[in-house]
Structure prediction request, 180 residues.
Amino acid sequence: MSRTKKITLGITAGALALGAGLGVTGMASAATTPSPSATSSTSAEGSGSTDGVRGGHRGDRGQIAADLATKLGVDEAKVTEAIQAFREANKPTAAPAEGTKPDRTAQDAAMAKSLAAALGVEESKVTAALTEIREAKQAERASALKTRLDTAVKDGTLTQDEADAVTKAVEKGVIGGGGH
Prediction:
């Protein structure tokens, strides 16, 4: 293998590692949620709850309850409680077999059904709201990744081809960072 190919492969691997690091950084920052205080409210300022919806791409874990409450026109505290109840009732009893992933579609449908029943809202409305929220968060992550990659290209850390490769890997679900 020529030296140029080895260097290109090394740089591409580094770019992929950077993209994976971006995804890990996003997950790590989402893992730290503030503890609710005795004076916390259900306003937008109090949306730092720890409802921690499973799945998704681990953005601000408390924000989904606020977003869902707004979209459905229900009290945020009720949404938070319903999400927590769903999570408790659906905790996995064992880790999935190596190389397998839980069925995301089935999980989403079960969550929508559970939240609809708990909140007294049509299941189709809950499903649509959850889809809108996830798509908006995914677009935000993709935009943030693009900004970081553009900066890396501008700074000379990556070439445009390498940045494009990272973007493609994220879009195809090979590495985390922008959603797929």
DSSP finds six helices and no strands in the chain.
